[in-house]
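yo

u said u wanted the structure for the complex thing, so here. seqs first:
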Amino acid sequence: MEDVAIVGAGMHPWGIWPEKNFVQMGQYAVDMALQDANLEWKDIPYVVSAVSRFSGSMGLSAGNALTQWMGNLGIPIINDWNACASGAYALRVAQALVAAGYVDKVLCVAGDKSPEGFITALPSDDIYDMNYQRLRLVGLTNPGWWALLARRRMHEVGTTEAQMAQVKVKNSKHGSLNPNARYKKVFTLEQVMNSQPVVKPLKLFEICATSEGSVAVIVTRAKDAKKYNKKPVLLSAVSCASYGYPEPETGASMVSDCVKEDTTASMGSMAKIAIKNAYEEAGLGPEDLDFAEVYDLATILELLWYEELGLCKYGEAEKLISQGDTQLGGRIPVNTSGGVASFGEVPSAQGLAQVYELVCQLRGEAGARQVKDAKAGLAINMGLMGNCSCLILKR
Amino acid sequence: MEKKKVPIVPWFTFPSDEPHLIGSRCKLCGDYFFPKVAMCRNPRCRSKDVEEVLLSRTAKIWSYVIQEAAPPPPFPARDPFVPYALAEMKLPEGIKIMGMVASGVPFDSLKIGLEMELVTERFYEDKDGNEVVTWKFKPVTSKKRSKK
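structre next:
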């Protein structure tokens, strides 16, 4: 199979943009990616787009909506919905299409406008629609699920609320250096600790906001990549996974799971599978990474990701954050972009937003948040209904 | 006239003084499921030989949270919102089940490992004036525990 590389990347900044819809933000990101790859819109032979779940029926065929306004080309357009991992799944499909020789380049795009507040389920009459029923029957919100992990972790290893809050402080420092981040304010530990409880033990500034934005990347065969861009970025692993069985961790979109063993707080079976496969696909291990983007929907998740990724052993994640190992300049900087803490969540686009940060870092174009001599970076993401992705990119 | 009580889903015995959640047990591989299934969900089994079972009435808290902000619909939040506790329970059968904690249980009495029992409780009133009932968990009293 052919190696595949990213030759163009573009991002519409995250924020609240009342005057724009997802198509207009998408055009901005796509034009930026095209310019980056020295290509024109009419040169694009294939689009893989994430579904824009919050943008009505137009958003269900988001890639088609975008091309209507960019100019119709008669090309195939795939629209995928894999929750927060949608962008990463789009990249996997693009990679497969190019690697198999069906097409010489593919544009991946993802963007949306998430409504404010708790993200809820689409209406359903089906009592077996567990993602709907967990909200209706037991009041399990997404932050509620993150808080269950936080409480359990505190019980297991004595994690303090201050240690969790340190994750937000660190990510806000990183986000303040990123022009594409929605929030550029640096938070103090006191501000995070004193913010109002949302789902105890988690507080307002420890859980992500919702946001609006768009991101696009263009991939080609690695051997052709330098024709388009002097600094291509290699897709070393694009690993996607869903729930396994038995499940060590009841999923956020469930009210029950078969859990035979005594388990510790973790990101569940899909994370373990996605990570193992990513390291195998890349032929790398955690010790080979220069930095990582991890899905910090809440502070506690970042700590759990450290251990899932093998950046430290079980029970040591708190030490990593407290010692500054994961801040810029530390042993293994994590969420150099500022993470979802600084961006806010656009579910369909966060997978590709992580890719955008990896591309910036690996090209040495991350400005004030640049990781020195970054050669390999990892991005881990997860979404509702058992959607997980783990990517490793190399320069 | 007394309000009619209706279970929110047919997933627990009702009416019942000692309610149970209704699940399934696979007769081939032995795995348990909630809610009940027509076919085993173990991908390496998939047997159709599953039986309906009443799940244990008592379970231990694996983790719990206090929801302090009103969830969005379809959760029927009261106005003004009343915070509630939600627990992830580990059953002796080896499955975990989520449930709200019964009203009136002090939040600070909850702790991981605490033994709780299943109860049913009024949840909200529907548009026809029926009292909709759901399952919840409350701590097992010491009297009941000593009976075992």
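Chain A has two domains: 4-116+212-232, 142-209+236-394. Chain A has a mean pLDDT of 96.
cya
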